[in-house]
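This protein record is not my work; I was only asked to verify it. Take the sequence as given and treat only the tokens as open to question. I have pasted the whole thing underneath without changing anything:
***
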Amino acid sequence: WAAFYSNHRLLAILSKCEHNHGADANFRALVTRTVDEVVPRLLGDGHLNGGRGITPVVVHGDLWSGNAGRGVVGGVGAVEDVVFDPSAVYGHSEYELGIMQMFGGFGAGFFEEYHRLCPKTEPAGEYGDRNFVFIWSWGQMRG
């Protein structure tokens, strides 16, 4: 997961930013340091879950309040909670929880139930730090 996140999220976003806006040595240095030091420290398989790493899962990939609502799926049945406009990725179960908090719309009850069903990855004390790294990549994409 750490290699995928580094190569296909952070470095891919950096490349796109440089293509669209020109190179910035300071930004490149920040992303490179994040890839080389922060990602392995917080997301490396040798670190998470006591060295067992993560079991990748399919996540929506762009789940925020603007991509969730209530409706009738396929015009059949009752009104229910729905999510739409996915950018699915096979990755860390916590990957999009940061963006869900960043843009709001999902209350504490949602996160409590989510973590009841899918406990925070160990070390749980670094959950906020992992979410910050994931939020940071969303900020890069929007920047």
Notes: The chain has five helices and four strands. The radius of gyration is 17 Å.
